[in-house]
Amino acid sequence: MRDTIFALASGSLGCGVAVVRVSGPRAKDVCVDFSGKVIPAGSVAYRPIRDPRDGELIDNALVLFFQAPRSFTGEDCLEFQLHGSRAVVSRLFVALAADSGCRLAEPGEFIRRAFENDKLPLTSVEGIADLIDARTEVQRRQALSQAGGHLADQSAVWRGCLMEALSLLEAEIDFADEGDAPSGVMPQVLFLLGGLLGQLDLALQQSSRGERIRSGFRIVLAGHPNAGKSSLMNALVRRDVAIVSEHEGTTRDVIEVEFDLGGFSVIIADTAGLRDAQDPVEALGVERSRREIERADLILWLEEAVSGDCVPSAKFADVLLIGTKMDLAFDKPMWADACISAKTGFGIDALFSLIEARARQRLSGEPPLITNLRQKACVEGAARHLRDAMAHENDALELVAEDLRCASGQLESLMGRIEVEDILGSIFSRFCIGK
């Protein structure tokens, strides 16, 4: 018989209320042993909670009981809502651990049981994990959409289309000798697959936006040494995180800070000035700077405003040219998209607005279906098998059918119905004990 697990499901102790969750086959017995009576499923009762071993009062608490399968985990589930004292919760844990068949839950074990009992698809599990980690409003909306089954529902539609195409093929393959069997189904199958492939490709095109929202919009401050990158970094995050010096090459490593900009998670990175460095340590910093630039979503290329021209050392996909040290200049240079003075604060608010507009342009819209690399890999696999199937249109129908089965397998893996244990372990380990 599966163990009955328990854990603290609320926040840090030393609080008003603590929620202790119990799930498993002994949940109903635990309810009777600790509260003295059966609590009707779906109801709440205020009861004294006593240690079954000696009858000592632990606390007075609200007790809720949820009968399988109508619970979060799909098992019998019990909740104690007690005073949020460390001593109270510790005393309850000691008593629960002494109960035969009960043990402390492992990280993510409650939500894993919900997944294993078909209460949640794997994409919703990932959405809940992202919702717990959400730091901005946009991340919250995206995670809530995923947790609510946005991708799971669409995947069911995709798989239904696959099954329709596969049933047409298999009917012709299996009953080709019977007079009333369908024949010449390939044009209809190709029509179904073409529409489905278009939907998958659209979802994949939007996947980069989902990953940026989830992990943060990356902005890199780049330019030649002593262009004012570290000063701008401190001005943007409104605290001293980077060393500012008149000496060139002070910044040797990448410094990152994450902050909320208009509801978007933004990661800004200060990098070493780009030049042919002779010092081996500075050269290593310059190399790291180049790697950061390659993976940035937006480059802020900094040049002193008094410079007659601004020529970035490479071509970037998305770049804003920033004139710095405006306190030393007479006028805005023609090449600059924005001008600032970190010393006086001139132009900083305008630059904030410009960055926010660029992030909003790249990230706004309805929550995308695909929000992480695992989901993207599964959908890419399904799309690849669909293209293989369409390429086999003039070959044996059995080959087309096998490609469609492989595509269906990729969608099954997306939902977690076909998955290897190490991937599942990695996903559920993201959760804390009690979730």
Structure notes:
By secondary structure, the protein is an alpha/beta fold. It has three domains: 4-105, Probable tRNA modification gtpase trme, domain 1 (Gyrase A, domain 2), CATH 3.30.1360.120; 124-206 and 370-428, Four Helix Bundle (Hemerythrin (Met), subunit A); 214-363, P-loop containing nucleotide triphosphate hydrolases (Rossmann fold). The protein contains 14 helices and twelve strands. Helix 6 packs antiparallel against helix 7. The radius of gyration is 29 Å and the shape is flat.
Strands, helices and their partners?
Layout: E1 4-8, E2 15-23, H1 27-35, E3 44-50, E4 57-66, E5 77-84, H2 86-98, E6 102-104, H3 109-116, H4 122-133, H5 137-147, H6 150-174, H7 186-205, H8 207-215, E7 217-223, H9 229-237, E8 255-261, E9 264-270, H10 280-294, E10 298-304, E11 319-324, E12 338-339, H11 348-363, H12 373-391, H13 397-415, H14 421-428
Parallel strand pairs: 1-6, 7-9, 7-10, 10-11, 11-12
Antiparallel strand pairs: 1-2, 2-5, 3-4, 4-5, 8-9
Helix pairs in contact: 4-5, 6-7, 6-13, 7-12, 12-13
- How are helices and strands ordered from N to C? EEHEEEHEHHHHHHEHEEHEEEHHHH
What would the principal axes of the Cα set say about the shape?
A: flat
Q: State the end-to-end CA separation.
A: 22 Å
* Overall average pLDDT: 84
> Any idea what the CATH superfamily of the largest domain is called?
P-loop containing nucleotide triphosphate hydrolases
